[in-house]
Amino acid sequence: GLRHFDRSAVARVIEYGARQVEHQRKLSSQLLEIGNLVAEASYWASKAGREIVTAEDVETAIRKKQYRSDLLAERVRDLIAEGTLKIETSGARVGQINGLAVIELGDFAFGKPSRVTARVSLGRGNLISIEREIALSGPIHSKGFLILSNYLAGAYAQDFPLAITASITFEQAYEEIEGDSASSTELYALLSALSGLPIKQGIAVTGSVNQYGDVQAIGGVNEKIEGFFAVCKVQGLTGEQGVIIPTANVQHLMLDEEVIQAVAEGKFHIWAVDSVDQGIEILTGVPAGERQPDGTYPEGTVHRLVMDRLREYAERMRDFGRREEREERSERTEAADPEPAGEH
pTM for the full model? Predict the structure, then answer.
C-alpha cells in the first residue's frame, strides 16, 4: 500500500495540482493523474528505504515523469546548442527578438523559443506576415497581426499616412503558427526595426496586445518561461536574461524550483508588464515616451524615433508621388504636341 506523506510531500503534491491548471489558487480535478503521482512518489520513498514520503520523493516522481516525455524537448535544446536552430541569448539586435511557443505532446508540454524578425522599407502601408502569406498562419494569429497595423496607425499616423512596407516572420518555423500570444513580440520587433534601437537578445517575450498597446494574458506561461530558461542555462546564464510576461499571468505562475532559485539569486528575471511601453523600455533600455498635447513625443524616446522614421517615409513617398506626377504630365504633353510637318 501507499506510505504516509509528510507535510512537505503533501505541499508538493498540491503545488503539482496547481501547476496542472496553471493557477495559484486552484487545483486540478484530474484525480487519476494525481493518484499516479502519489503512487510513484511512494515507490521512490520505499526505494530510498523511507517509511514516510517526503517532498524529495514527490519531486523525484515528477522529474521521472518529465524525463519519460521530454525527448523532443531535449532534441530541440540540442539543436539550439549546436547552432542548427539559431537562438541568441546575449547581445542586442535591431529588428530581432525571441518569442515563445508551447509544444504539446499528449499530457506533456514544453516551451520553445523562436526567433522573430522584422524588416521595414518605404511602401504604401503594407504590413506583411510571411506566415499569413503562405497559409501557415491560423485565424487567431492573423487577427493578432492585423491589430499591429491598427496600433501603428493610432499611435503615429494621425497627421500623415503610413508609407511603409514591413514584413515579420518566425525564423526557422515550418509548422502552422496559431494564437495571438506572439502579437506583442511581433510589435516589439517592428518598433525596433522602425526606431533603429537594438533589442536585448537575453530577454524573451510572450503576451498578446490590443489596438491600444495593452498587453493581455496568454496560456502556457510556465512552460514558456522554463523553456527559455533551459536554453539560457545551456548557453550560459549571464544574470541579465529573463522573460517578459503579462501582469495578468502572474497569478498563473507555478514554476520549476530551479527557475525560482535562479530568479531569487538574480541569475534570471521575470518582468510583468501591462503595456507595450513598459516592455519596450525593458527590451531597449530607452524610455518609451508619452504623447504630448501637440501629438508628438519627447526627443530621444522610442516613440519619437519611430514617428520620425515614419514621417520621413511619408515625406519621401509624397516627393516620389510628385515626381511621378510630373513625369506623367510631361509624357502626356509630349504625346499631345504634333510633330512638326516636314518640307516638301
Answer: 0.84
How far apart CA 297 and CA 302 sit, in angstroms, is 9
Whole domain around residue 187: which residue ranges? 83-284
Of 28-42, 87-101, 225-239, give the lowest mean pLDDT range.
28-42
Cα–Cα dist 323/137, whole Å: 38
For β-strands 126-129 and 164-170, DSSP reports them as parallel
From the list 114, 129, 181, 195, the catalytic residue is 181
Please tell me what DSSP assigns to residue 202: T
44 vs 39: CA distance, rounded Å = 9
Terminus-to-terminus CA distance in the chain, angstroms? 121
Alpha-carbon radius of gyration of the chain: 26
Question: How far apart (Å, rounded) are the C-alpha atoms in residues 89 and 98?
Answer: 8
Kindly state the cell numbers that stand for 67: 524525463
Catalytic status, residue 224:
yes
Task: Count other C-beta atoms under 10 Å from residue 134's C-beta.
Answer: 9
CB-count burial class (<10 Å; 0-12, 13-18, 19+) for 107: exposed
Count structural domains, the chain: 2
Residues 148 and 49 in one domain: no
E-strand ranges in the chain read: 4-5, 52-53, 92-93, 96-105, 108-122, 126-129, 164-170, 199-200, 203-205, 208-209, 215-216, 242-246, 269-273
- 160: in domain: yes
Look up 181 and say whether it is catalytic. yes
Q: Which of 112, 200, 224, 267 is catalytic?
A: 224
198 & 107 share domain: yes
Q: Give the alpha-carbon dihedral of 98, 104, 110, 111, to 10 degrees.
A: 10
Count Cα atoms within 13 angstroms, Cβ side, for 261. 4
pLDDT digit string, tens, across residues 181-195: 889 999 999 999 999
- CATH number of the domain where residue 57 is located: 1.10.8.60
CB-CB contact of 79 with 85 (8 Å): yes
Same structural domain, 234 and 155: yes
CB atoms within 10 A of CB 217: 17
Q: Is residue 311 in some structural domain?
A: no
